[in-house]
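Hi Y.,

Following your request, here is the sequence exactly as I used it, all 85 residues.
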Amino acid sequence: MRSINDLKTKTIVSNIRKVREYRNYTQDYLAAKLQISQNAYSKIELGYSNITLNRLVEIADILEIELVDLISSNGEDLIRLKAVR
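Below is the corresponding structure, written out as tokens. Let me know if you'd prefer a different format.
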């Protein structure tokens, strides 16, 4: 079961990175919006830090994307959606 959770986490953090890059947002920008260091934000994208639901909602809001799309789509689908609410 652990490997399924790891795979889902990797998909979510990959989606976060892809949408962030699509929006031309830097890690510094998201970190500032989340009021955390760039290093702490980088650990989120690398999957080194666990993401709380509240933090995931904040990230989705900053990226201007629905949370359900962020967690249930693959990166290519997100880009096709143009990450617009």
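Residues 65 and 84 are 6 Å apart (CA to CA).

Thanks again,
Q.
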